Amino acid sequence: MRTHLISVLGNRLYQPTYYGAKLKKEEFFQCTLAKKFEKELKNNGRITVLLTTEAKEMNWQNRKFSGNEAGRSFGDGYVIREGDIHEGLESKLKKIVGDDAVHCITLSDCSDHNLMLKEISDKIIRIIEDGDEVIFDITNGFRSIPLIAVSALRYAKTIKRCKLKGIYYGAFDAIQDGVVPIIDTSLYNDIIDWSFAAEQLKEYGNAIPMKDTYEDLHCYSDNYDYGTSLGKVIKATYILTEAIKTSRLSDDTEGIEANIRDAYWYYRKCYNDWSNDGFDYADIPLKEMLKCANRKFRVLYNKKGYELGLVVARLQMEFKMVNQTYVCLHETMKMYIRDILLKKFENYDNLSELMFMVKKKGEYEEKKRAGEDMYYSDWQYFTEIDRDSQEYYSKLKEDRKILAKKVFLKINSDLAFAKKQVSSKRNNLSHCGILEGDNKEIDVTEFQKSLDKLYGIVCNAINDDINGSLG
Fold first, then answer.
1. 141 or 235: which carries more pLDDT confidence?
2. Distances (CA, A) of 127 to 45, 61, 96, 105
3. Max CA pair span of the chain
4. Which residues does 316 contact at the CB level (< 8 Å), separation at least 6?
5. Which of 228, 395, 434, 460 has the least C-beta neighbours within 10 A?
6. CA dist., res. 388 & res. 123, Å (int)
């Protein structure tokens, strides 16, 4: 990882001035930044200056002052004389950080302002390498440079995983007592980062950008305790969204990272603590983002078992988590069969057999609803047509056969069909869109379009079964 100072150089003659403090006057603000980060830049760092041909001749290279410049005041008591040597920025930077670290890139001589800005953006993205820690100087050049720089850096941060150490500006317009203040305008970049994080959380249930941005701004890592109420609610939001993303419905294992219920109650406590503490000024970019997320997560309140599964599946659909939704619905159906359906039958506790019968009844319903000519009943399919179930049934004792038939015939047909539909689509997605057996490719958009319909089938089937509409 290297430190990379990027700057833009103009083509006018800059007056030496004090930057930040009355230590030494500098003609070029780039020299002030190079001294500020001298240690990092000398250690395999890089300085890249973007400039035009005119700026290169005027300020980058060493040159002689011209007759037009003669007589002008330049620094403390010095008056320019024609033929005197003007030391360029290149030479000054090399004296600070060494020859190997200093580079320039010449921009095209173009009168079209928009094309120039596009070129600058492209150059910035190209010169940033993976993992760079970027320092950007926006003092010279077009007034639109800050916006271009921030946009290019946002793209580079996403693609090249670079980090921003600062966006610095020598504010001549705010000079006081002969000292030009140095302003870190990284807030521009922070706002874009928070905007991206907000979009990811709101649209996709992804809290990783929010967590990463918070850690970048507060110099946190996974080894630090998120001690503030704001830090705790951010970490809790991340834990909850990861639990939703991975459909951790079962509460057999306790812990905020083990299941959604515990993750939600931890999140709820952290959110309430943060709300009760009052919003600090630094919380403003996060305030609306966290409030919006909280409104979505309220549906998890007091939900457990299959009811929690249905709510989580709905959230996953809103967050466009297609594969996760099918997995969640599949697990929800299994939980309903285990926790509700199994308990409906007296003197019957064979869960694996019940799962098997629901599967076979679902197969029958799928064929029937697909329009196949069914000359046999679902029970005949189970005992006479399907080889696997016929073999299983034939090995049962007579009293178990009677009980199995009673259970099979009471299984809700819609429930069995819904379970089969969910299982089939989940398996097809698990096989990367290839139907097992015939290598028929599946259009993934089909799964997205059918989610709402399938979710409705599952909800209706469960509601009907609970209300006693048995097959």
1. 235
2. 13, 21, 21, 9
3. 116
4. 205, 244, 245, 247, 324, 325, 328
5. 395
6. 65
Amino acid found at 214 = Y
User: What homologous superfamily is domain 3-185 in, according to CATH?
Assistant: SSO1389-like (3.40.50.10640)
Per-residue pLDDT tens over the stretch 147-161: 777 788 878 888 888
- pLDDT, one tens digit per residue, over 267-309 is 999 999 988 876 665 566 678 889 999 999 999 999 999 999 9
- Domain residue extents for the chain: 3-185, 193-302, 336-466
163 near 219, Cβ under 8 Å? no
**CB atoms inside a 10 Å sphere around CB 256:** 19
Q: Is residue 22 within 8 Å of residue 154, measured between CB atoms?
A: no
Token representation of residue 187? 């807030």
Start-to-end Cα distance in the chain: 65
Classify residue 346 as exposed, middle or buried by CB count within 10 Å of its CB (0-12, 13-18, 19+): exposed
* DSSP element (H, E) containing 133: strand 133-137
Chain-centre distance for alpha carbon 295: 20
